[in-house]
Design goal:
Length: about 200
């Protein structure tokens, strides 16, 4: 009986040692919880937003990329937050974009929001964004849906301040706007097609 107990104790001890070894050798990134990753990622978003507002898109990309790395450590790279980070990396890599150089017309764009895909439409006229409409969304942060479109029209740029407590929604609207603008052709200078040359 005593030997049986000693054997059982030895097996339990060995199992604990194995578990401790696996835990010790596991990648350090697995130690970060979802909550910790979100907090750290949002701090990096704030940093990215700060330099993005200054037009320093290359620095912003680095901040958003770092946030994606953090989210990846907790397995959140495919989550809503991960999608938001990826969209902002795409956004900053495509900026700046000059609305004044785009041809008039109506253009639509889509991007992922907090819950689902958002779809927007823009009307360009005279080198300006004249109209911004949200065609489809499932967001609950009404504040972001109201403020961001107004800011975009006022600034005549898809790069605006993210609305507090509606950051993901803001990022989605900005990215959708960029994608809509990318569909517009660039204005070209009128060329002389008569074939005449100055003497």
């Amino acid at each position: 009986m005593r030997r049986s107990r000693m054997t059982l104790w030895a097996l339990l001890t060995a199992a604990l040692l194995v578990l401790a070894s696996v835990s010790r050798d596991a990648p350090a990134q697995r130690a970060m919880s979802h909550g910790q990753a979100e907090i750290q990622a949002r701090k990096l978003w704030s940093l990215g937003d700060a330099v993005r507002r200054k037009g320093q898109y290359d620095k912003a990309v680095k901040a958003y990329e770092k946030s994606l790395e953090v989210l990846t450590t907790s397995g959140d790279d495919r989550s809503t937050l991960g999608m938001a980070a990826k969209q902002m990396i795409e956004f900053c890599n495509a900026m700046p974009i000059d609305v004044k150089q785009l041809k008039d017309g109506a253009y639509e764009g889509e991007a992922w929001g907090y819950f689902a895909v958002m779809k927007i439409s823009l009307k360009l006229e005279g080198g300006r964004i004249r109209e911004f409409r949200i065609l489809q969304h499932k967001e609950t942060r009404e504040k972001g849906l109201e403020i961001v479109p107004r800011l975009i029209v006022k600034k005549q740029s898809p790069s605006v301040d993210a609305v507090s407590r509606a950051t993901v929604t803001s990022y989605g609207l900005m990215t959708a706007t960029l994608r809509a603008l990318q569909k517009a052709e660039t204005k070209t200078d009128k060329k002389d097609t008569t074939g005449k040359t100055d003497d």
